[in-house]
Design brief:
The complex is a heterodimer. By secondary structure, chain A is mainly α. Chain A has helices at 3-21, 23-33, 36-48, 56-64, 68-80, 83-99, 103-117, 141-144, 149-168, 181-188, 190-209, 215-232, 234-249, 254-278, 289-296, 305-314, 318-332, 337-342, 349-371, 391-396, 401-433, 445-448; strands spanning 121-124, 133-136. In chain A, strands 1-2 form a two-stranded antiparallel sheet. In chain A, a hairpin with an 8-residue loop joins strand 1 and strand 2. In chain A, helix 2 (23-33) packs across helix 14 (254-278), helix 6 runs parallel beside helix 9 and helix 19 (349-371) packs antiparallel against helix 21.
Amino acid sequence: MSKFNSMLESKVMPIAGKMAGQRHLQALRDGIVLTMPLIIIGSVFLILSNLPIPGYNDFMAGIFGKEWATKMAYPVGATFDIMALLACFGIAYRLAEKYGVDALSAGAISLAAFLLATPYKVSFLPSGAKEAILVDGGIPTALMGSKGLFVAMIVAILSTEIYRWFIQKDIVIKMPDGVPPAVGKSFAALIPGFTVIAFIWILRLLVEQTHFGSLHNIVGELLGKPLGVLGGSLGGTLVAELVIMLMWSCGLHGANIVGGIMAPIWYGAMDENRIAFANHEALPNIFTQQFFDIWINIGGSGATLALVVAMILKARSQQMKQLGKLGIGPALFNINEPIIFGLPMVMNPMMLIPFIITPLVTVVATYIAMSTGLVAKPAGIAVPWTMPPIISGYLATGGKLSGAVMQAINIGISVCIYYPFFRMWDKQKFAEENGTQPTVEEVPSDTQKDIV
Amino acid sequence: MNILLCCAAGMSTSLLVTKMEKSAQEQSTEYKIWAVPGDSVRNHIDQADVLLLGPQVRYLLPQFKKLGEEKGVPVDVINPVHYGTCNGEQVLKFAVQLVSK
């Protein structure tokens, strides 16, 4: 194994293993994933209410009345605006599952705890009034959405930790035999649930004495702002992308692992853009979840679509031709495991160079294009990451051609970086196949052990 | 025999499922092969005779090995080369081997 490989193996693997095995990070990622299907559904309505077709607005207004856009926004609100609520339940559920305690109860308790942490005050603008007044007795949808995401995460983890502590210490009300298990379970949740609610309640009472006023304000100030700066800056993003690619270089699903930390930031940024987009204001963020899904990971992590196309058009060796044919279908839908493990990219010093460099270059290029206004920013529309490129760039910007053009440019950049390395690799394979060179073992021997 | 595969989103493993089913058709044994995302393995493992992980989620192995021991289901990581080349035949062989061990 070369020096580079052993460096990767010894430095990245332990970090990746630790991060991936950390159950709170896992729970965060898996819990937030629960919101994704709904967000994508909401995005469909968001696109439909903002189709950039001349005359579309008048056409729709003619059929459904002047208020049609407002009505179209109902499902958008019902999906995006409960992001934190769902994430809170999902995170608690997944974490409890990992501890092997009743996940449904843990989810329910943390949901109540999250609502308890939230002041039921909604700002309301009466018709004719100039300033909004605070009204009691409503659940503020703003705090149930991405703005409440961090509080939801903290409350979910905190309450589930308390819950499982009681269950694991067996401090629960036990029902005699013969009582149905479902009834028994609800009684078992009583003591831990009461403790969680009491704890959050006291916390809220204490916070209300300070100038912050609510837990949401504290978390926003102390956690949300610094993390937002990290996730929203070019430097922070490049570091995150580099870590993702280093993990993939060892054959680990980097995006999935790093997602535990970055997802709340990038989803939060996405939702800010969504709100601005719906109100026809300037979009505040460039780095959202979609920035990576749509413009960077074209063909999968490492932007390997370009490589697969090169294989199909230019490969001389049989192996590369075959792999190109096998890989092009999935690559169009941004799935590239056949390439990563089949070429292989994993632990392959030659191919790892473009694999790591390409996404970093496209991050910078896309950032420059978007920050200078040449290319439209992601509009907070969650296009599924499996959507083929060009279409996805058009949709994710809310129907701006520049979004699709940027994808084409990024594919072009990827081709330029990958091509020389691909040529070298292909040449070597071609020589091996024609017996002009002794076969080089292309797979680290320790991964081959487990077949035989 | 029931073979459960898992990866991050259950996408790339589902490619492999098709190839494995093709290879299974040539044999007379009844196979049920399906792929799920890592976070829903718990809901599927009871129906499985063997659980195979994609190499990109091999960090899940310790966790699922423990689960597999509880349920009496052998768990292992698919060989990366077979995975990358979608070699259904070899992966099927590997699964059968694990079960018969």
